[in-house]
Please model this.
Amino acid sequence: MTQLPEKTDRKMGLVIDLDTCVGCHACVVSCKGWNTENYGAPLSDQNPYGADPSGTFLNRIHSYEVQPETGPAQLVHFPKSCLHCEDAPCVTVCPTGASYKRTEDGIVLVNEKDCIGCGLCAWACPYGARELDKAEGVMKKCTLCVDRIYNENLPEEDRVPACVRTCPSNARHFGDLGDPDSDVSQLVAERGGMDLMPELGTKPVNKYLPPRPKDRLNEEIDILAPLLAPVVQEPKGFLGWLDKALEKL
Amino acid sequence: MHPAPSIIAFSTFSGLGLGLLFWLGIDQTPPTGWVAFAFFAIGYALAVGGLVSSTFHLGRPERALKAFTQWQTSWLSREAWAAVAALVTMGLYAFMLVFLNIHLAILGQIGAFFCLVTVYTTSMIYAQLKTVPRWNTGLTSALFIALSVAGGALLSGRVTIGLILILVAGGIQALWWKTGDTRFAKSGTDLKTATGLGSIGTVRAFEPPHTGTNYLVNEMVYTVGRRHALKLRMIAFLLMLVVPVLLLLLPYPHIFGVLALLSHIAGVLVSRWLFFAEAEHVVGLYYGMR
Ligand code: SF4
Ligand code: SF4
Model:
Protein backbone atom coordinates (compact mmCIF):
# COMPACT_ATOMS: atom_id res chain seq x y z
CA MET A 1 0.00 0.00 0.00
CA THR A 2 2.97 2.33 -0.04
CA GLN A 3 2.33 3.30 -3.62
CA LEU A 4 0.83 6.75 -3.57
CA PRO A 5 -2.57 7.15 -5.19
CA GLU A 6 -2.42 8.89 -8.60
CA LYS A 7 -5.04 11.28 -7.39
CA THR A 8 -7.26 11.57 -4.35
CA ASP A 9 -10.97 12.37 -4.51
CA ARG A 10 -10.59 15.15 -2.00
CA LYS A 11 -7.60 16.83 -0.40
CA MET A 12 -8.57 17.33 3.18
CA GLY A 13 -6.15 19.47 5.11
CA LEU A 14 -5.49 22.47 7.28
CA VAL A 15 -4.88 26.11 6.55
CA ILE A 16 -2.83 27.73 9.30
CA ASP A 17 -2.90 31.47 9.73
CA LEU A 18 0.47 32.75 10.91
CA ASP A 19 -1.04 36.19 11.31
CA THR A 20 -3.54 35.26 13.98
CA CYS A 21 -1.83 32.41 15.82
CA VAL A 22 -1.00 33.76 19.28
CA GLY A 23 1.22 30.85 20.27
CA CYS A 24 -0.96 29.70 23.16
CA HIS A 25 -0.35 25.98 22.52
CA ALA A 26 -4.03 25.18 23.12
CA CYS A 27 -4.10 23.06 19.95
CA VAL A 28 -1.07 21.12 21.19
CA VAL A 29 -2.91 20.21 24.35
CA SER A 30 -6.21 19.37 22.68
CA CYS A 31 -4.42 17.29 20.04
CA LYS A 32 -2.58 15.30 22.64
CA GLY A 33 -5.74 14.93 24.70
CA TRP A 34 -7.87 13.65 21.84
CA ASN A 35 -5.29 11.45 20.20
CA THR A 36 -3.98 9.82 23.32
CA GLU A 37 -7.32 8.20 23.93
CA ASN A 38 -8.64 7.58 20.44
CA TYR A 39 -7.09 6.35 17.17
CA GLY A 40 -4.25 3.90 17.82
CA ALA A 41 -1.76 3.69 20.64
CA PRO A 42 -1.71 6.41 23.32
CA LEU A 43 0.82 9.24 23.04
CA SER A 44 3.20 8.34 25.82
CA ASP A 45 5.31 10.64 27.96
CA GLN A 46 8.67 9.73 29.40
CA ASN A 47 9.58 11.04 32.81
CA PRO A 48 6.76 13.62 32.65
CA TYR A 49 7.26 15.00 36.18
CA GLY A 50 11.00 14.44 36.35
CA ALA A 51 13.95 16.59 35.50
CA ASP A 52 14.03 15.65 31.83
CA PRO A 53 10.48 15.26 30.53
CA SER A 54 9.74 14.29 26.94
CA GLY A 55 6.88 12.76 25.04
CA THR A 56 5.14 12.11 21.77
CA PHE A 57 3.28 15.02 20.18
CA LEU A 58 1.56 15.22 16.80
CA ASN A 59 1.47 18.98 16.74
CA ARG A 60 4.14 21.35 17.98
CA ILE A 61 4.36 25.14 17.99
CA HIS A 62 7.60 26.86 17.15
CA SER A 63 8.22 30.60 17.44
CA TYR A 64 10.37 32.58 15.04
CA GLU A 65 11.70 36.09 15.11
CA VAL A 66 11.68 37.83 11.73
CA GLN A 67 13.76 40.96 11.37
CA PRO A 68 12.69 43.13 8.41
CA GLU A 69 15.23 45.46 6.86
CA THR A 70 13.82 48.42 8.76
CA GLY A 71 11.58 48.60 11.79
CA PRO A 72 11.19 46.32 14.74
CA ALA A 73 11.38 42.53 14.63
CA GLN A 74 8.20 40.47 14.37
CA LEU A 75 7.44 37.38 16.39
CA VAL A 76 5.67 34.65 14.43
CA HIS A 77 4.19 31.61 16.14
CA PHE A 78 4.40 28.61 13.92
CA PRO A 79 2.23 25.52 14.45
CA LYS A 80 3.52 22.41 12.71
CA SER A 81 1.90 19.04 12.20
CA CYS A 82 1.67 16.60 9.28
CA LEU A 83 0.95 18.47 6.03
CA HIS A 84 -0.63 15.38 4.40
CA CYS A 85 1.64 15.81 1.38
CA GLU A 86 0.39 14.78 -2.05
CA ASP A 87 3.80 13.37 -2.87
CA ALA A 88 4.46 12.03 0.60
CA PRO A 89 8.01 10.66 0.84
CA CYS A 90 7.19 9.11 4.21
CA VAL A 91 4.76 6.70 2.55
CA THR A 92 6.91 5.34 -0.24
CA VAL A 93 9.89 4.54 2.01
CA CYS A 94 7.84 2.40 4.38
CA PRO A 95 8.87 -1.26 4.02
CA THR A 96 5.77 -2.78 5.60
CA GLY A 97 2.87 -0.93 4.03
CA ALA A 98 1.95 0.48 7.43
CA SER A 99 2.10 4.02 6.05
CA TYR A 100 -0.44 4.92 3.42
CA LYS A 101 -2.31 7.79 1.82
CA ARG A 102 -6.05 7.41 1.51
CA THR A 103 -7.60 7.71 -1.94
CA GLU A 104 -10.89 9.13 -0.70
CA ASP A 105 -9.61 12.14 1.23
CA GLY A 106 -5.81 12.18 0.95
CA ILE A 107 -5.20 11.67 4.66
CA VAL A 108 -1.81 10.07 5.41
CA LEU A 109 -2.14 7.41 8.10
CA VAL A 110 -0.12 4.71 9.85
CA ASN A 111 -1.64 1.30 10.37
CA GLU A 112 0.00 0.64 13.69
CA LYS A 113 -0.55 -3.11 13.55
CA ASP A 114 1.83 -3.34 10.60
CA CYS A 115 4.43 -0.81 11.74
CA ILE A 116 7.79 -2.28 12.77
CA GLY A 117 9.05 1.01 14.15
CA CYS A 118 12.03 1.26 11.80
CA GLY A 119 11.78 5.05 11.83
CA LEU A 120 12.60 5.45 8.16
CA CYS A 121 9.42 7.43 7.46
CA ALA A 122 10.38 9.96 10.13
CA TRP A 123 13.72 10.36 8.38
CA ALA A 124 11.98 10.87 5.05
CA CYS A 125 9.62 13.59 6.32
CA PRO A 126 11.23 17.03 6.01
CA TYR A 127 8.87 18.64 8.50
CA GLY A 128 9.38 16.54 11.61
CA ALA A 129 5.76 15.45 11.52
CA ARG A 130 6.30 11.85 12.62
CA GLU A 131 7.42 10.69 16.03
CA LEU A 132 8.19 7.17 17.14
CA ASP A 133 6.39 6.46 20.38
CA LYS A 134 8.93 5.28 22.96
CA ALA A 135 6.48 3.17 24.92
CA GLU A 136 4.68 1.57 22.00
CA GLY A 137 7.50 1.30 19.46
CA VAL A 138 5.27 2.41 16.59
CA MET A 139 5.16 5.56 14.49
CA LYS A 140 2.66 8.26 15.45
CA LYS A 141 1.49 11.13 13.31
CA CYS A 142 -1.42 13.53 12.80
CA THR A 143 -4.50 11.66 11.55
CA LEU A 144 -6.38 14.87 10.77
CA CYS A 145 -8.62 13.50 13.53
CA VAL A 146 -10.01 10.91 11.16
CA ASP A 147 -12.05 9.65 14.11
CA ARG A 148 -13.76 13.04 14.60
CA ILE A 149 -14.35 14.45 11.14
CA TYR A 150 -16.68 11.63 10.02
CA ASN A 151 -17.99 10.79 13.50
CA GLU A 152 -21.76 11.00 13.49
CA ASN A 153 -21.87 10.53 17.25
CA LEU A 154 -20.41 13.98 17.67
CA PRO A 155 -22.43 17.19 17.26
CA GLU A 156 -21.80 18.66 13.84
CA GLU A 157 -19.64 21.56 15.03
CA ASP A 158 -17.25 19.07 16.61
CA ARG A 159 -16.64 17.18 13.36
CA VAL A 160 -13.37 18.99 12.70
CA PRO A 161 -9.86 18.19 13.95
CA ALA A 162 -9.42 18.83 17.67
CA CYS A 163 -6.84 21.56 17.05
CA VAL A 164 -9.19 23.47 14.74
CA ARG A 165 -12.06 23.16 17.21
CA THR A 166 -9.91 24.41 20.06
CA CYS A 167 -7.97 27.31 18.58
CA PRO A 168 -9.17 30.42 20.43
CA SER A 169 -7.95 32.81 17.74
CA ASN A 170 -9.29 30.91 14.72
CA ALA A 171 -5.84 30.46 13.30
CA ARG A 172 -6.60 26.94 12.04
CA HIS A 173 -9.05 26.11 9.28
CA PHE A 174 -10.08 22.70 8.00
CA GLY A 175 -11.52 21.76 4.62
CA ASP A 176 -11.05 20.34 1.14
CA LEU A 177 -8.10 22.01 -0.52
CA GLY A 178 -8.78 20.10 -3.71
CA ASP A 179 -12.01 22.01 -4.29
CA PRO A 180 -11.22 25.52 -5.52
CA ASP A 181 -14.60 26.80 -4.25
CA SER A 182 -14.18 25.59 -0.68
CA ASP A 183 -13.77 28.16 2.08
CA VAL A 184 -10.21 27.05 2.76
CA SER A 185 -9.20 27.26 -0.90
CA GLN A 186 -10.68 30.76 -1.14
CA LEU A 187 -8.79 31.76 1.97
CA VAL A 188 -5.55 30.45 0.51
CA ALA A 189 -6.15 32.31 -2.74
CA GLU A 190 -7.01 35.55 -0.97
CA ARG A 191 -4.13 35.56 1.49
CA GLY A 192 -1.42 34.03 -0.67
CA GLY A 193 -1.19 30.72 1.17
CA MET A 194 2.19 29.06 0.85
CA ASP A 195 3.92 25.66 0.94
CA LEU A 196 6.72 24.83 3.35
CA MET A 197 9.99 23.73 1.70
CA PRO A 198 8.42 23.67 -1.77
CA GLU A 199 11.81 22.80 -3.27
CA LEU A 200 11.62 19.30 -1.81
CA GLY A 201 8.70 18.42 -4.06
CA THR A 202 6.45 16.96 -1.37
CA LYS A 203 3.47 19.06 -2.49
CA PRO A 204 1.99 19.63 0.96
CA VAL A 205 -1.80 19.84 1.14
CA ASN A 206 -1.72 22.04 4.27
CA LYS A 207 -1.09 25.68 3.53
CA TYR A 208 0.30 28.51 5.65
CA LEU A 209 -1.04 32.06 5.46
CA PRO A 210 1.79 34.58 5.82
CA PRO A 211 1.51 37.31 8.46
CA ARG A 212 -0.18 40.47 7.16
CA PRO A 213 2.04 43.56 6.79
CA LYS A 214 2.42 45.35 10.10
CA ASP A 215 1.57 49.00 10.81
CA ARG A 216 4.63 51.20 11.17
CA LEU A 217 5.09 53.26 14.35
CA ASN A 218 7.70 55.64 13.02
CA GLU A 219 5.79 56.85 9.98
CA GLU A 220 3.72 60.10 9.61
CA ILE A 221 1.24 60.25 12.50
CA ASP A 222 -2.43 60.59 11.60
CA ILE A 223 -4.56 63.74 11.29
CA LEU A 224 -5.62 63.75 14.93
CA ALA A 225 -2.05 64.29 16.01
CA PRO A 226 -2.21 68.10 16.37
CA LEU A 227 -5.22 67.78 18.63
CA LEU A 228 -3.40 65.29 20.77
CA ALA A 229 -0.38 67.50 21.27
CA PRO A 230 0.26 68.24 24.94
CA VAL A 231 -1.84 71.26 26.00
CA VAL A 232 0.23 72.61 28.87
CA GLN A 233 3.74 73.35 27.77
CA GLU A 234 4.85 75.54 30.68
CA PRO A 235 3.56 75.01 34.19
CA LYS A 236 1.64 78.06 35.51
CA GLY A 237 0.60 79.37 38.95
CA PHE A 238 2.06 77.69 41.98
CA LEU A 239 3.69 74.93 39.93
CA GLY A 240 5.22 77.56 37.66
CA TRP A 241 6.67 79.41 40.66
CA LEU A 242 7.95 76.13 42.13
CA ASP A 243 9.50 75.15 38.83
CA LYS A 244 11.34 78.45 38.58
CA ALA A 245 12.36 78.43 42.21
CA LEU A 246 13.81 74.96 41.92
CA GLU A 247 15.55 75.90 38.72
CA LYS A 248 17.37 78.73 40.55
CA LEU A 249 18.68 76.56 43.33
CA MET B 1 21.48 11.90 12.48
CA HIS B 2 21.74 9.77 15.57
CA PRO B 3 24.56 7.23 15.10
CA ALA B 4 22.81 4.12 16.44
CA PRO B 5 25.43 1.45 17.18
CA SER B 6 23.17 -1.29 15.80
CA ILE B 7 22.91 0.41 12.40
CA ILE B 8 26.61 1.19 12.25
CA ALA B 9 27.48 -2.41 13.07
CA PHE B 10 24.87 -3.70 10.66
CA SER B 11 25.98 -1.70 7.65
CA THR B 12 29.69 -2.21 8.27
CA PHE B 13 29.69 -5.94 9.00
CA SER B 14 27.03 -6.96 6.53
CA GLY B 15 28.87 -4.94 3.87
CA LEU B 16 32.08 -6.75 4.73
CA GLY B 17 30.46 -10.20 4.80
CA LEU B 18 28.68 -9.61 1.50
CA GLY B 19 31.95 -8.34 0.02
CA LEU B 20 33.65 -11.60 1.03
CA LEU B 21 30.81 -13.67 -0.41
CA PHE B 22 31.05 -11.64 -3.60
CA TRP B 23 34.71 -12.61 -4.08
CA LEU B 24 34.00 -16.25 -3.23
CA GLY B 25 31.18 -16.21 -5.77
CA ILE B 26 33.26 -14.96 -8.69
CA ASP B 27 36.35 -16.99 -7.82
CA GLN B 28 37.37 -19.20 -10.80
CA THR B 29 39.25 -21.58 -8.51
CA PRO B 30 37.34 -21.36 -5.27
CA PRO B 31 38.39 -23.18 -2.12
CA THR B 32 36.63 -26.46 -1.47
CA GLY B 33 36.01 -28.66 1.53
CA TRP B 34 36.85 -27.30 4.97
CA VAL B 35 38.72 -24.26 3.72
CA ALA B 36 35.63 -23.24 1.79
CA PHE B 37 33.54 -23.96 4.85
CA ALA B 38 35.65 -21.60 6.94
CA PHE B 39 35.47 -18.79 4.38
CA PHE B 40 31.75 -19.10 3.89
CA ALA B 41 31.16 -19.35 7.61
CA ILE B 42 32.97 -16.05 8.14
CA GLY B 43 31.04 -14.43 5.29
CA TYR B 44 27.73 -15.66 6.64
CA ALA B 45 28.53 -14.77 10.25
CA LEU B 46 29.27 -11.18 9.22
CA ALA B 47 26.41 -10.77 6.76
CA VAL B 48 23.75 -12.48 8.87
CA GLY B 49 25.08 -11.02 12.11
CA GLY B 50 24.87 -7.58 10.57
CA LEU B 51 21.35 -8.13 9.31
CA VAL B 52 20.21 -9.44 12.68
CA SER B 53 21.73 -6.49 14.51
CA SER B 54 19.77 -4.17 12.21
CA THR B 55 16.55 -5.46 13.76
CA PHE B 56 17.71 -4.28 17.20
CA HIS B 57 16.81 -0.70 16.49
CA LEU B 58 13.27 -1.57 15.44
CA GLY B 59 10.46 -0.55 17.76
CA ARG B 60 8.64 -3.79 16.95
CA PRO B 61 11.21 -6.38 15.83
CA GLU B 62 8.69 -9.22 16.11
CA ARG B 63 6.95 -7.92 13.00
CA ALA B 64 10.16 -7.66 10.94
CA LEU B 65 8.88 -10.10 8.31
CA LYS B 66 6.33 -7.52 7.18
CA ALA B 67 9.24 -5.58 5.73
CA PHE B 68 9.19 -7.94 2.73
CA THR B 69 5.88 -6.64 1.43
CA GLN B 70 6.62 -3.23 -0.08
CA TRP B 71 9.46 -3.92 -2.51
CA GLN B 72 7.69 -1.89 -5.20
CA THR B 73 8.45 1.44 -3.52
CA SER B 74 10.65 0.88 -0.49
CA TRP B 75 14.43 0.44 -0.59
CA LEU B 76 14.34 -1.10 2.87
CA SER B 77 11.99 -3.77 1.59
CA ARG B 78 14.12 -4.31 -1.51
CA GLU B 79 17.12 -4.71 0.74
CA ALA B 80 15.34 -7.49 2.62
CA TRP B 81 14.64 -9.34 -0.64
CA ALA B 82 18.10 -8.80 -2.06
CA ALA B 83 19.68 -10.08 1.16
CA VAL B 84 17.58 -13.24 1.10
CA ALA B 85 18.32 -13.79 -2.59
CA ALA B 86 22.05 -13.34 -1.98
CA LEU B 87 22.21 -15.56 1.08
CA VAL B 88 20.11 -18.35 -0.44
CA THR B 89 22.02 -18.44 -3.73
CA MET B 90 25.39 -18.27 -2.05
CA GLY B 91 24.25 -20.86 0.47
CA LEU B 92 23.47 -23.32 -2.29
CA TYR B 93 26.75 -22.54 -4.03
CA ALA B 94 28.65 -23.00 -0.78
CA PHE B 95 26.87 -26.25 0.04
CA MET B 96 27.90 -27.73 -3.30
CA LEU B 97 31.49 -26.58 -2.90
CA VAL B 98 31.91 -27.72 0.68
CA PHE B 99 30.05 -31.00 0.73
CA LEU B 100 29.78 -32.16 -2.87
CA ASN B 101 32.99 -30.68 -4.20
CA ILE B 102 31.10 -29.26 -7.18
CA HIS B 103 31.91 -25.80 -8.50
CA LEU B 104 28.86 -24.38 -10.25
CA ALA B 105 30.40 -21.11 -11.49
CA ILE B 106 27.20 -19.57 -12.79
CA LEU B 107 25.47 -20.00 -9.44
CA GLY B 108 28.39 -18.28 -7.72
CA GLN B 109 28.23 -15.42 -10.17
CA ILE B 110 24.51 -14.96 -9.65
CA GLY B 111 25.07 -15.02 -5.89
CA ALA B 112 27.90 -12.48 -6.19
CA PHE B 113 25.62 -10.24 -8.20
CA PHE B 114 22.94 -10.40 -5.51
CA CYS B 115 25.57 -9.58 -2.86
CA LEU B 116 26.38 -6.35 -4.66
CA VAL B 117 22.70 -5.61 -5.19
CA THR B 118 22.16 -6.00 -1.45
CA VAL B 119 24.89 -3.51 -0.62
CA TYR B 120 23.43 -1.15 -3.22
CA THR B 121 19.94 -1.37 -1.72
CA THR B 122 21.40 -0.64 1.72
CA SER B 123 23.12 2.45 0.37
CA MET B 124 19.92 3.60 -1.34
CA ILE B 125 18.04 3.64 1.97
CA TYR B 126 20.25 6.61 2.80
CA ALA B 127 21.00 8.01 -0.64
CA GLN B 128 17.30 8.37 -1.48
CA LEU B 129 16.62 10.81 1.36
CA LYS B 130 16.28 14.37 0.11
CA THR B 131 15.87 15.38 3.73
CA VAL B 132 19.54 14.56 4.44
CA PRO B 133 21.48 16.39 1.71
CA ARG B 134 24.82 14.90 2.75
CA TRP B 135 23.52 11.43 1.89
CA ASN B 136 21.43 12.36 -1.11
CA THR B 137 23.97 11.52 -3.82
CA GLY B 138 25.04 8.65 -6.04
CA LEU B 139 28.44 8.83 -4.34
CA THR B 140 26.89 7.25 -1.25
CA SER B 141 26.18 4.07 -3.19
CA ALA B 142 29.63 4.14 -4.76
CA LEU B 143 31.17 4.47 -1.30
CA PHE B 144 29.22 1.59 0.21
CA ILE B 145 29.96 -0.75 -2.68
CA ALA B 146 33.65 0.19 -2.85
CA LEU B 147 34.10 -0.36 0.88
CA SER B 148 32.28 -3.66 0.69
CA VAL B 149 34.35 -5.14 -2.14
CA ALA B 150 37.59 -3.69 -0.75
CA GLY B 151 36.98 -5.20 2.68
CA GLY B 152 35.86 -8.45 1.10
CA ALA B 153 39.03 -8.62 -0.95
CA LEU B 154 41.20 -8.15 2.15
CA LEU B 155 39.15 -10.69 4.04
CA SER B 156 39.53 -13.27 1.30
CA GLY B 157 43.31 -12.74 1.24
CA ARG B 158 43.54 -10.97 -2.13
CA VAL B 159 46.46 -8.66 -1.51
CA THR B 160 46.99 -6.84 -4.82
CA ILE B 161 43.39 -6.27 -5.75
CA GLY B 162 42.61 -5.47 -2.11
CA LEU B 163 45.32 -2.83 -2.13
CA ILE B 164 43.94 -1.22 -5.26
CA LEU B 165 40.39 -1.34 -3.99
CA ILE B 166 41.10 0.29 -0.64
CA LEU B 167 42.83 3.10 -2.52
CA VAL B 168 39.76 3.48 -4.72
CA ALA B 169 37.42 3.35 -1.73
CA GLY B 170 39.58 5.89 0.10
CA GLY B 171 39.38 8.21 -2.89
CA ILE B 172 35.59 7.97 -3.00
CA GLN B 173 35.47 8.51 0.75
CA ALA B 174 37.53 11.69 0.48
CA LEU B 175 35.38 12.97 -2.37
CA TRP B 176 32.21 12.10 -0.45
CA TRP B 177 33.42 14.09 2.56
CA LYS B 178 34.50 17.04 0.48
CA THR B 179 31.32 17.37 -1.59
CA GLY B 180 29.19 16.49 1.42
CA ASP B 181 30.30 19.56 3.32
CA THR B 182 28.59 21.91 0.89
CA ARG B 183 25.62 19.81 -0.18
CA PHE B 184 23.25 21.15 2.49
CA ALA B 185 23.87 24.74 1.43
CA LYS B 186 23.54 23.78 -2.23
CA SER B 187 20.23 22.01 -1.62
CA GLY B 188 18.59 25.43 -1.30
CA THR B 189 16.66 24.46 1.82
CA ASP B 190 17.08 26.88 4.70
CA LEU B 191 15.02 28.46 7.45
CA LYS B 192 13.51 30.84 4.87
CA THR B 193 12.00 28.09 2.75
CA ALA B 194 11.18 26.02 5.84
CA THR B 195 9.03 28.78 7.33
CA GLY B 196 8.10 30.69 4.18
CA LEU B 197 8.87 33.86 6.16
CA GLY B 198 11.98 34.84 4.23
CA SER B 199 10.12 37.44 2.18
CA ILE B 200 9.58 39.54 5.33
CA GLY B 201 13.12 39.53 6.63
CA THR B 202 15.77 37.47 8.35
CA VAL B 203 14.29 34.52 10.20
CA ARG B 204 15.71 33.30 13.50
CA ALA B 205 14.43 30.47 15.66
CA PHE B 206 13.19 32.21 18.79
CA GLU B 207 11.63 29.50 20.90
CA PRO B 208 11.43 25.73 20.44
CA PRO B 209 8.07 24.01 20.96
CA HIS B 210 9.03 22.50 24.31
CA THR B 211 11.64 23.16 26.94
CA GLY B 212 12.68 19.51 26.92
CA THR B 213 14.08 17.39 24.17
CA ASN B 214 12.10 15.11 21.87
CA TYR B 215 12.36 12.20 19.45
CA LEU B 216 12.98 14.45 16.47
CA VAL B 217 15.86 16.30 18.05
CA ASN B 218 17.46 13.15 19.45
CA GLU B 219 17.11 11.23 16.23
CA MET B 220 17.77 13.87 13.61
CA VAL B 221 19.61 16.80 15.14
CA TYR B 222 22.54 14.90 16.60
CA THR B 223 25.27 17.51 16.99
CA VAL B 224 27.54 15.96 19.62
CA GLY B 225 30.11 14.39 17.33
CA ARG B 226 30.50 17.24 14.90
CA ARG B 227 32.99 19.15 17.00
CA HIS B 228 35.62 16.48 16.50
CA ALA B 229 34.53 15.52 13.02
CA LEU B 230 37.71 16.63 11.32
CA LYS B 231 39.96 14.72 13.70
CA LEU B 232 37.78 11.65 13.39
CA ARG B 233 37.95 11.86 9.62
CA MET B 234 41.73 11.79 9.80
CA ILE B 235 41.63 8.82 12.16
CA ALA B 236 39.19 6.99 9.90
CA PHE B 237 41.32 7.70 6.87
CA LEU B 238 44.51 6.55 8.55
CA LEU B 239 42.93 3.35 9.78
CA MET B 240 41.00 2.40 6.69
CA LEU B 241 43.55 3.41 4.10
CA VAL B 242 47.04 4.49 5.12
CA VAL B 243 47.84 1.81 7.71
CA PRO B 244 46.51 -1.14 5.68
CA VAL B 245 48.32 0.00 2.54
CA LEU B 246 51.64 0.26 4.40
CA LEU B 247 51.10 -3.10 6.06
CA LEU B 248 50.26 -4.77 2.78
CA LEU B 249 53.39 -3.37 1.16
CA LEU B 250 55.54 -5.04 3.82
CA PRO B 251 57.31 -8.29 2.84
CA TYR B 252 55.00 -10.89 4.36
CA PRO B 253 51.57 -9.62 3.32
CA HIS B 254 49.78 -12.70 4.59
CA ILE B 255 51.00 -12.20 8.12
CA PHE B 256 50.43 -8.47 8.14
CA GLY B 257 47.26 -8.96 6.15
CA VAL B 258 45.30 -9.72 9.31
CA LEU B 259 46.48 -6.51 10.92
CA ALA B 260 45.72 -4.59 7.74
CA LEU B 261 42.23 -6.04 7.72
CA LEU B 262 41.56 -5.20 11.38
CA SER B 263 42.82 -1.67 10.90
CA HIS B 264 40.67 -1.28 7.80
CA ILE B 265 37.55 -2.50 9.62
CA ALA B 266 38.20 -0.14 12.52
CA GLY B 267 38.58 2.72 10.05
CA VAL B 268 35.33 1.84 8.30
CA LEU B 269 33.54 1.74 11.65
CA VAL B 270 34.77 5.25 12.46
CA SER B 271 33.81 6.45 8.99
CA ARG B 272 30.37 4.89 9.35
CA TRP B 273 29.91 6.57 12.72
CA LEU B 274 30.70 9.88 11.06
CA PHE B 275 28.37 9.02 8.20
CA PHE B 276 25.52 9.35 10.68
CA ALA B 277 26.89 11.81 13.20
CA GLU B 278 27.82 14.39 10.56
CA ALA B 279 24.61 14.09 8.55
CA GLU B 280 22.27 17.03 9.00
CA HIS B 281 18.52 16.54 8.55
CA VAL B 282 16.54 19.51 7.25
CA VAL B 283 14.16 19.30 10.23
CA GLY B 284 17.00 20.71 12.33
CA LEU B 285 16.29 24.06 10.66
CA TYR B 286 12.97 24.30 12.47
CA TYR B 287 14.87 23.97 15.73
CA GLY B 288 17.38 26.61 14.76
CA MET B 289 20.10 24.01 14.30
CA ARG B 290 21.47 21.86 11.60
S1 SF4 C 1 4.25 16.18 6.43
FE1 SF4 C 1 5.73 14.52 6.67
S2 SF4 C 1 4.52 12.87 7.58
FE2 SF4 C 1 3.06 14.30 6.71
S3 SF4 C 1 2.66 13.52 4.64
FE3 SF4 C 1 4.28 15.07 4.45
S4 SF4 C 1 6.17 13.88 4.55
FE4 SF4 C 1 4.54 12.55 5.34
S1 SF4 D 1 8.32 3.22 11.25
FE1 SF4 D 1 6.48 2.03 10.70
S2 SF4 D 1 5.31 3.38 9.35
FE2 SF4 D 1 7.39 4.20 9.46
S3 SF4 D 1 8.49 3.32 7.70
FE3 SF4 D 1 8.88 1.96 9.45
S4 SF4 D 1 7.26 0.41 9.35
FE4 SF4 D 1 6.60 2.10 8.03
